[in-house]
Amino acid sequence: MRSPYFFLPLALALGSCQTAAPAGAERFAAADHTGDGRLSRDEVNDYFVAGIFAERDRDGDGYIAQAEWNPEMKAAEVTQFKLRDHNGDGRVSLAEAQAHARKSGIYTEAFAEADTNRDGFVSREEAVAYYASKEGPLR
Hints:
Elements: H1 4-15, H2 22-31, E1 38-40, H3 41-56, E2 63-65, H4 66-69, H5 75-84, E3 91-93, H6 94-104, H7 108-114, E4 121-123, H8 124-135
Helix pairs in contact: 1-8, 3-6
């Protein structure tokens, strides 16, 4: 069983869509690249990875170098970094990070849990329900 913290990013991002407040609607819209009112697994993946990438790309050059990833990497972390660095140039682009996350299925389990009607998409309603199941109703 996964730690409850594994689901937190998905719960927070999708759950923020539950309010009528513009911020929640904007987050859902930002993740909904196709504009069809529902989120595919790839859209959810790309949205989360882009957020994490933006935080780690401290110099804003569009790449994450090992020093930005973790300046004190141990061997296992170096291996994880290299798995994301598909072209072996010593840095990870957003496209490489998103491709790795899609391939490794990082958000697959949480996405499947949120997709209650099993249609391969998470609707706004499913996002609201998923958030409520993880964090409780908004106060």
